[in-house]
Amino acid sequence: MPGTFDLDQQHWDLDAKLVAAAERLGQALRALLRREARRHGLSPVQLQVLIQVGQRAYPKRVGALAARFDVSAPTLSDAVAALEAKGLVVRRPAADDRRAVELELTAAGREVASRAEGWADGVTALAAALPTADKLQAFATLTALIAGLQAEGVVSVARMCRTCRFLREGTDTPYWCALLELPLEREDLRVDCPEHEPRAA
Amino acid sequence: MPGTFDLDQQHWDLDAKLVAAAERLGQALRALLRREARRHGLSPVQLQVLIQVGQRAYPKRVGALAARFDVSAPTLSDAVAALEAKGLVVRRPAADDRRAVELELTAAGREVASRAEGWADGVTALAAALPTADKLQAFATLTALIAGLQAEGVVSVARMCRTCRFLREGTDTPYWCALLELPLEREDLRVDCPEHEPRAA
DNA sequence: CAGTGTATTTAGGAGTCCTAACTATCTGGA
DNA sequence: TCCAGATAGTTAGGACTCCTAAATACACTG
To answer: Tens place of pLDDT for every residue, chain B, 201 residues?
Structure first.
């Protein structure tokens, strides 16, 4: 590496730099989440669980949530226990499977969730200033990477359209959802769809 | 939201979806780092510190590393203590400031660092399959978001060219580094430059 | 209905992450 | 010169993360 410091080392690999940038952004987002959680007297996972359980149509069981956040069941169980102790969620046996537990927000839980769910709004606002075409491109690139990681089994669940068995090519639009029977533009593709079912039997 | 489940909710905001995708990818990368660290009997932060200290030309003090990883000084101090106990780094008073501590890898530390520093190679390989133009675009978009977050003081240090006081517009190339006196293409912009100095006095 | 598998919790240990408080050292004046 | 105020780092202590292993309870299959 003659004389250019290690410029070449960073030059030779756009791929590595893209990954590094994603990592940095991820770190920033994580820090942001941590601070928001703290503001509400919660830990990061606790807040994530609270927000997720606050969404309708998503699975609200310990196992599903553990997969969603890529942690073990005991870790998530701890977080739920803490949330329950704080009076923000209620735990109840599932109707169809009494081994399982359904989570539900209490009134207090809904209150906190609604105040905290916009924790990433600052970043979203920054994104608003960028050209739509760039964002579409970046979105496609990021989801391609996520899909690749999921295919390799690195990351457990990602309920993205890109990995969903109902995603088809469209006739008038680029894509088509065979479950909802809806045409989809590129910007309609979701990152976290309640109806998602993995491809390949 | 009439009848389309919450499709519209996800439709209306490409910005939010881009952020969600970044968050997911960040989560996956974090999980990957955790596993690699585990493989070497280390914790995530310990591995990050080990790798960072293994790079030349970067600050190797506790404070700088804490800022780099967005954690408090005590947290990083703990990690360093653990690494020292494992015989992977040495702690020594800095030459110019005897309050400060310089870290250095031991032979064992270099060994582990060199085996683990490619922890994200799997993702990089996935990126290699994507078109260069897309990656350039995505890289620009991600760094724009990071720069925005840094400007807002959300994230502490990001030694990116985009926030560096030495970055100029180039004549033949899009950019120019006024410190190294080098022309820079878009793909030359760095995410973590040793020579970085923040803009604005 | 026995056997196997699944959902979750408990137990226990290393590490993360914080704030507060303390030591040692540096730095800028009077 | 000497001291007040900053700064680099550590220690202390508490809540939480994250794991594996083991237990409990229930579900499914033949």
So the answer is: 333 344 444 445 889 989 999 999 999 999 999 999 999 999 999 999 999 999 877 888 999 999 899 999 999 999 999 999 999 999 999 888 889 999 999 999 999 999 999 999 999 999 999 999 999 899 989 988 988 888 777 776 667 777 777 778 877 787 887 777 778 777 777 777 777 777 654
Q: Do B191 and A29 touch (CB under 8 A)?
A: no
Q: Point out the residue among A122, A135, A139 whose CB comes nearest to the CB of B154.
A: A122
Q: Which two tokens stand for residue A173?
A: 């639009």
Residues 6+ apart with CB under 8 A from A86: A41, A42
Say whether the CB atom of A94 is under 7 angstroms from strand C: yes
pTM, 2 dp: 0.85
Per the CB < 8 Å rule, is B70 touching A28?
yes
Sheet holding B167-169, edge to edge: B167-169, B175-177, B182-184
Q: How far is the CA of A99 from the C1' of C1 (A)?
A: 20
Q: Could you tell me the CA-to-CA distances from A165 to A56, A107, B167 in Å, in that order? A: 22, 36, 46
Say whether the CB atom of A77 is under 7 angstroms from strand C. Answer: yes
Spatial CB neighbours of A135, under 8 Å, sequence gap ≥ 6: A127, B14, B15, B18, B141
Smallest Cα–Cα separation from A144: which of B30, B187, B138, B143?
A: B138
Alpha-carbon Rg for chain B, nearest whole angstrom, is 20
